[in-house]
# Entry
Amino acid sequence: MGFVNDISCCELTPEARSRLVKTPADVAGVVVKFKPKQFFVDIDRLEFVANNAIMSELGITPRLLYIDADCMINEYVPSRNYKIEEDLDPKTVKELARVLARIHSAKPPISSKTFKNWEKLFDEDSPMMKNPPMKNIIDKKYLDSLKEETEEIKAKYWDLLESIEYLESSRLTRELSKKVNSTFVFSHSDFNRGNRLVAKVKDPETGVEKKRIWIVDFDYSTINYRGIDFGRYFSNYRHEDDMFGDEGFPTDEEMALFLEEYRQECARIQGQFYLEANPLEMLIREAKIFAMQAYSDFFFCLMMYTNDPKGPRKDYFLEAAFNRYSGLQKLKKRFTEDGTIPYVLKQEKK
# Structure
């Protein structure tokens, strides 16, 4: 599952069920996840344990049965990934908003160390930026691989991908993200569709079947900007593609459906002061800015393509890089014209 995870779904023997859980008949199996070597940032393993344990206790992630610094075992929940049909269902959109509000309102006993590590990674003078694979993206080494593609592929992708100036794009999105003054919260920090599961359950009172949303993969969760999760959510909103599409961006009215429900749930948990301190218009503006940052994942797609330009997924990542960079340019144009970017650039960082 994902790009770096080592996950196995296992059926339990009757003896194992009786030893692991109090109600063996209710457990379909377990999911065993081995924590990989960090793909980008060094994350405190004690925080990894704390975050996953607390999310299980809150009922946000499937029941945690075992965890240590290298491995965790969760109850297997028959489910599927969150899809476009969920975004088309207002009830499910509101349910997801309430779940995210609960995550952001949580107070795990963790530091801001991981956030600071993330920030340092993308400083222009950081070791990661000065060495491959990121240096290859900055220097456009992916064009060497693109030259070897068919004329049809080059005609489709070359002009746009050749125009990429990664550092210039990164400077703008980072400046905007800081100036929009997003609140720091406990953030999932990888709030993509693959980490949102949808299960069908029966309401214990009515017996009516309904959808339940589970959030998984809190490996990169930390104290972070609230907008990180907003941006990732809206960057895939009503897209057929799982994560790297460019199929349009929601209207302000569509964004309001999710963000107003989020506000109301935060107010219910934290207090009514939240509504006055966080007007809907502010959250919409914040989500737009962080959606641009989410679309900047074109660099990851280019990196995956450059690392294996003849591999089985090279066409997927080439298309994904094209989609995301193209989408980013459209967002820059739209948010300039609607006044979002000019407004944010005038703000002084608090």
About this structure: The CA atoms of residues 79 and 220 lie 22 Å apart. The domain at 80-345 is CATH 3.90.1200.10 (Aminoglycoside 3'-phosphotransferase; Chain: A, domain 2). DSSP finds 17 helices and nine strands in the chain.
